[in-house]
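debug: dumping io for the single-chain case to check the tokenizer round-trip. Nothing else runs in this session.
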Amino acid sequence: MKETIFAHLKQKIMNTWFECKVKYEKIGSDGKEKMVTENYLIDAISFTEAESRINKELEPYISGEFVVTNIKMANFAELVPNDDGDRWFKCKVTFISLDEEKGIERRSNNYMLVQANNVKEAFDYLQKSLGDTISTFEIPAIVESPLMDVFTYFEGTLENKKKGQNLNPAEDSDKAEFDEDEDE
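debug: decoded output
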């Protein structure tokens, strides 16, 4: 009961995003094990909860041990998911307003995360998501982010985005890599 009330309040307030770096051994396409560090974005209330949640989310997908090496707050105002996209792009959006009293233009920068296959798609999806905005805006920058995946606090908040869609369960990862080698 307490968790439900807390979760409901969290949803009403706003999302707090944490970028988590996770280090673990991964079997490469050449069949050799190597240490990798990957970034994930998770919606949580605190650093402690972010660490707990990222451990729970990644446990089914990583065989062996892994370590959360860094957690930092991310400053994303909004996420624009797209089930067809395979990467995340960090987009800088500048909202422009006019201070009528002083007669000057005010600019406010926000960062949004857009899921797409390339920069052009990210731009198009962002334009579409901002289409009903009454504010004037510019998109001065779009760069591919290092994020492997995004885990939301509430199911369905990313338009029912499947958790871990860019990951394979640990027991399937070895088989998938060997299947790729056979095709060559």
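debug: round-trip ok. The chain has a mean pLDDT of 81.
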